[in-house]
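To close the section, here is one more complete example, presented without commentary so you can practise reading it yourself. The ligand is magnesium ion.
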Amino acid sequence: MLIELKYVGDWRNLCNFAVLMERMTRQRNIAVLGSTGSIGRQTLDIIGEYPNLFKAWLLVARSSADLLIAQARQMRPHMVIIADEQYYGYVCDALEGTGIEVATGSAAIAQAVTMSEIDTVVTAMVGYSGLESTIAAIGARKRIALANKETLVVAGELIDRLMKDSKSVLYPVDSEHGAFYQCLVGERMQDVERLLLTASGGPFRTMPKEQLENVTAADALKHPNWSMGAKITIDSATMMNKGFEMIEARWLFGIMPDDIEIVVHPQSIIHSMVAFKDGSVKAQLGLPDMHLPIRYALGLPDGRLASDCRKMTIEDMAMLTLERPDFDKFPLLGTAYAAARKGGTAPCVMNAANEIAVAAFLQDKIKFTDIYKIIEKTMEQASHIEHPTYEDYVATNTEAREIAARLAKQRSI
Ligand code: MG
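Output:
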């Protein structure tokens, strides 16, 4: 189990903003890794909502130089990093005279997150790229608001080991895991029977299986409820995202994969539920808006941050439905359980193949259903390591990407 389920202080003070302000004796400096992505931008909204509590200290983007520059001018961080070196000069020129430090390259990111001024690192990068800097933040004993689920999918075992030896704390940003956290505060893990992980079902929930072969990237990018980045929206359409979240929950809460049940809930109001051994089920509800779990994660461990955001009405909750997922139509759900049971580098291979396949699908190079085939075949062909080191994950990721890229180029997979 990677996280500690408790608040500091008295529960009666949890909603008392004055007490919270007093407890946070100074502004918390936040590093936002992936500040130009969907979660990154919403994190900056929350930082802007509570200027007395939070300051954006470090902003990191991969290649969206113009947006990073605009964010830097607005938020006035201590430092920005543009990971892609070709934009370094451009960002430097644009921020000249502002006093904001500019750096580039992945080594700079891993080094910057360890700066002593930083209290919280929000890991909102896409995919495997989040791993190295998350490991660096754990080593530097930072408070981590984890939005990059792939870190735990790829290297859950390693992160589990590192967290045991570290004073670092992890808080989930994913809405489902934020929901589990909220349902579990004050409970004993031995009383938990299973976690009920809710899924919207994505844009193809009601589409017949035979039609999935011909859906386009544009069709798959129309998520019914959540507004998210392109990669995770495709992952939602294939339901790979839910498989990833099952593995994320497995490590965060120390629960075996078969004790996590996926439940399709098309309205995305119930963010997830916990079933206890006495027959009780606790659920956390909210509007499908990522600001909510981000606000909750940034408030931890002190308490909830009062907000003027739109609150849920009776009408929002009036029609809630639940159904079982279709493992036949969405085979990546079964793939994710198989990878989680196998452990070792299996989930790392699955993630690498998925990243390559989703990128190829977004460029209209492969069919929607080829995504499954590429992942399955890559998992058959890639080597397996039972107890991997960090270097093993890096090598496995490279190998699996090469296999998947070769498969994606073939005419028939
Ligand atoms: Mg989620």
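Once you have examined the tokens, check your reading against these statements. The two ends are 39 Å apart (CA to CA). The first strand starts at residue 28 and ends at 33.
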